[in-house]
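Tokens in:
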């Protein structure tokens, strides 16, 4: 069951990202353990596209064909550079935060052995 509060919040965030033409990587949480996440990679400059394969797995495609730019190689170069910056920035920050959060999780579990039961995550974004 999707958490209505998280679904509503994420819809507003996605609309804001779209309206402002910016990319975003967002994770929302609500007690007891519901999560909603979005990887929004579709500002106008982005040549990265998220797709789902027939097994339901996410895949990323990079498409930058010269024909789509009507010969404007400078714009194509700017879009490729901006996309690379977006992907590397998200990857670096997400990686650092993931390590920090995993270390903190282990610290909390070891500080309170037996007191804390870690429940399985309840993702409301359709993934388990």
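Residues out:
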């Amino acid at each position: 069951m999707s958490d209505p509060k998280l679904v509503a919040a994420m819809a507003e965030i996605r609309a804001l990202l779209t309206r402002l033409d910016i990319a975003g990587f967002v994770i929302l949480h609500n007690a007891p353990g519901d999560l909603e996440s979005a990887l929004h990679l579709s500002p106008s400059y982005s040549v990265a596209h998220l797709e789902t394969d027939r097994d339901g797995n996410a895949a990323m495609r990079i498409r930058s064909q010269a024909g789509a730019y009507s010969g404007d190689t400078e714009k194509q170069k700017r879009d490729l550079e901006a996309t690379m910056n977006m992907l590397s920035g998200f990857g670096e920050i997400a990686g650092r935060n993931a390590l920090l959060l995993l270390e903190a999780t282990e610290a909390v579990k070891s500080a309170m052995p037996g007191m804390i039961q870690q429940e399985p995550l309840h993702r409301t974004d359709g993934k388990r």
